[in-house]
Amino acid sequence: MMKSERFVPIQEMAARAADELRRAMAESQSRVAELERQLQQLQSYRDEYIRKGAGTAGAVDAVRLMNYRAFLDRLTEVISQHLQKLGAARADHEARRAAWSEKRIEAESLTRAVERFRSEEQGIAERREQREGDEAAMRSRSGARALHDV
Questions:
Q1: For site-directed labelling of 126, which of 3, 63, 110, 116 has its Cα 20 to 30 A away?
Q2: Is the dihedral of CA 25, 28, 34, 37 positive or negative?
Q3: In angstroms, rounded to a whole number, what is the distance separating the alpha carbons of residues 58 and 78?
Q4: How far apart are CA 113 and CA 126, in angstroms?
Q5: pTM of the predicted structure, to 2 decimals
Q6: Cβ count within 10 A of residue 56
Q7: CA geometry: angle 138, 140, 142, nearest 5 deg
Q8: Rounded distance, CA 69 to CA 67, Å?
């Protein structure tokens, strides 16, 4: 078995692994984008709630003010938790991107190695064919000389 043939299964495994990591990276990027969209919605809702709360001029009773502040505190807490989720999702995405990049480089290196092995094998085969052709031509010339000398 030729060297290039021995390396092909290894190269194919690395390429499949890189493709799987690429898909996982794309999924993690989608997750980050979705969390960013949700965060934007939460922040917009909080800002609108604050704007509406500030716009209620006049007397506000104590119970209503306590409820307003409690809801705003809860909304701020949810945003904080969401920011933590987003940070974890970004870190996960970066880890997946790094793993994919590493595996992609490995797969590309193996592909180049297989191509180099094939090129070397082709060169060896061409030189062998040339040598065999030259030897055959020499044999036929020496055979023709031997017949001519007789």
A1: 110
A2: negative
A3: 29
A4: 20
A5: 0.72
A6: 10
A7: 65
A8: 5
The DSSP output letter for 58 is S
Distance (Å) of CA 68 to CA 61, 64, 119: 11, 6, 75
The domains found in the chain, sorted by start residue, are 3-120 (1.10.287.1700)
Q: Which residues contact 45 (CB under 8 A, 6 or more apart)?
A: 75
- Residue-level pLDDT, tens digit, the chain, 150 residues: 888 889 899 999 999 999 999 999 999 999 999 999 999 999 999 999 988 876 665 566 888 889 999 999 999 999 999 999 999 999 999 999 999 999 999 999 999 999 999 999 999 999 999 998 888 888 887 766 665 665
The residue written with tokens 């970066």 in the block is 94
CA triple 47-48-51, angle to 5 deg: 85
Cα–Cα distance, 14 to 114 (Å, whole number)? 13
